[in-house]
Design goal:
It contains four helices and no strands. By secondary structure, it is mainly alpha-helical. The protein has one domain. It is globular. It starts with 11 loop residues before the first helix and ends with a helix. This is Squalene-hopene cyclase. InterPro entries: Terpenoid_cyclase/PrenylTrfase.
């Protein structure tokens, strides 16, 4: 899988920030960006958060996944992305952030 920084393996904080920036620069349909967005959906924790390091639960520093997925224009979000965004938002809202 060719993810951002695949030399070291994917890492949420960097991959999420780079994907978000590349979407803003017009590269949303680039295969690497699309693969990274899919990876973000697939690696969301059961509690709805993400974590920059290996962990079973999300942490408050995992907003990069949520921010990257939020850059996808709403009409172009598939069901998986919509659910990931809802779960990610609830992760923060339930912690009163």
């Amino acid at each position: 899988m060719d993810l951002v920084l695949d030399r070291w393996g994917p890492e949420l904080c960097v991959s999420g920030n780079v994907a978000r920036s590349l979407i803003r620069f017009g590269y949303r349909d680039h295969p690497v960006v699309r693969t990274t967005l899919r990876w973000l959906v697939d690696t969301q924790k059961a509690d709805g958060g993400w974590h920059c390091f290996r962990s079973r639960t999300g942490t408050l520093d995992g907003w990069e996944g949520l921010a990257a997925l939020a850059e996808i224009p709403e009409p172009e979000r598939d069901g998986d992305v919509r659910r990931a965004l809802e779960r990610g938002a609830e992760f923060y809202l339930s912690r009163r952030l």
